UniProtKB/TrEMBL annotation:
UniProt keyword terms in alphabetical order: Cell membrane, Membrane, Transmembrane, Transmembrane helix, Transport
Biological processes, Gene Ontology terms: transmembrane transport
One Gene Ontology cellular component: plasma membrane
InterPro entries xref list: BP-dep_ABC_trans_perm, MetI-like, MetI-like_sf
Residue stretches making up the ABC transmembrane type-1 domain: 77-269
Name listed for the protein in its UniProt record: Carbohydrate ABC transporter permease
PANTHER family: INNER MEMBRANE ABC TRANSPORTER PERMEASE PROTEIN YCJP, MALTOSE TRANSPORT SYSTEM PERMEASE-RELATED
Source organism of this protein record: Thermalbibacter longus
Similarity comment: Belongs to the binding-protein-dependent transport system permease family.
Listed Pfam families: BPD_transp_1 (PF00528)
Subcellular location: Cell membrane
The organism's place on the tree of life at top rank: Bacteria
Membrane topology, as annotated: Multi-pass membrane protein
């Protein structure tokens, strides 16, 4: 064998490591930038002659003291968690039965309904703003967290139903048919057989829906103006940007505190998340 053939596996590994290193640097850079900015002193942060990637002065916790003591950040986090969990619950209650029904509805009608649901998800949220604001006003939910609880499922339910529909189609239908032959009704077969098997897809839907509720900004900013009732996505920019003064250290600190749990959540359930996203791809 020639020397080039001996070196080829090492060159392939070197290329893969280089690509992975570039990807990791790109993925971790926002977290590193947030961490550096959150612990920098203002005199270091705003000095244009200092290296922005290094601590030219000793780190400080002043930005976190501002965030936790002089803003309602913890209240915003609690509001975000409440709205996110409520959105997840409503979305699952609506999307899981719809996805199962569509997966069992064969023929042209089932395909048309599935495409219609997915096209609903593609409608930009800005186009839905006026009708949703009218609904919120009619129900008297302006400046209440209920405005977000009833609004966010309209953004998440179509996609989750479409996602879970493909997952249910990937499950072996013979198991359900065997349960029906043994005397179980359709609901019992769904609850006892299909639902436990759909846990990876449901977990994917939970992560997607909760992330959407945490990141959404337009409706959170418009429907809720009371500071005590704001979510993190709206509370941080409105309370930490005062006129032309940007409290960058506190802003980056809040972003770091909120984003790390979400990143750890994705990492903990990564295998199930990918399984849920790719289910049904080959069916």
């Amino acid at each position: 064998m020639s020397a080039s053939s001996h070196l080829r596996p090492y060159l392939i590994k070197l290329v893969l490591v280089a690509v992975l290193a570039i990807f990791l640097a790109q993925a971790l850079f926002p977290f590193a930038w947030m961490a550096i900015t959150a612990f920098k002193r203002d005199s270091d942060l705003y000095n244009p002659t200092n290296n922005p990637f290094l601590f030219n002065e000793p780190p400080t916790l002043a930005h976190f003291r501002l965030l936790f003591n002089e803003t309602k950040f913890l209240r915003w986090v609690a509001n975000t968690a409440g709205v996110g969990l409520s959105t997840v619950l409503i979305t699952l209650v609506l999307a899981v039965p719809a996805a199962y029904a569509l997966s069992r509805l064969r023929g042209r009608l089932g395909q048309q309904l599935a495409v219609a649901i997915f096209l609903t998800y593609l409608v930009p949220p800005t186009l839905l703003f006026l009708p949703l604001s009218q609904i919120v006003s009619t129900l008297g939910f302006q400046d209440k967290l209920w405005a977000l609880v009833i609004t966010y499922p309209s953004l998440s339910t179509p996609f989750v139903a479409w996602l879970l529909m493909g997952f249910f189609r990937s499950l072996p239908q013979e198991l359900e048919e065997a349960a029906l032959v043994d005397g179980a009704d359709r609901f019992t077969a769904f609850r006892r057989i299909m639902l436990p098997l759909a846990v990876p897809g449901i977990l994917t839907a939970v992560i997607f829906t909760f992330t959407l509720a945490v990141n959404e900004f337009i409706y959170a900013l418009t429907f809720v103006s009371i500071s005590d009732l704001k979510t993190v996505s709206a509370g941080v920019p409105t309370d930490l940007i005062r006129g032309d003064v940007f409290f960058w250290g506190a802003i980056m600190g809040s972003a770091l505190v909120v984003s790390l749990p979400v990143a750890l959540l994705y990492n903990a359930f990564l295998d199930r998340f990918v399984e849920g996203l790719t289910a049904g791809a080959l069916r």
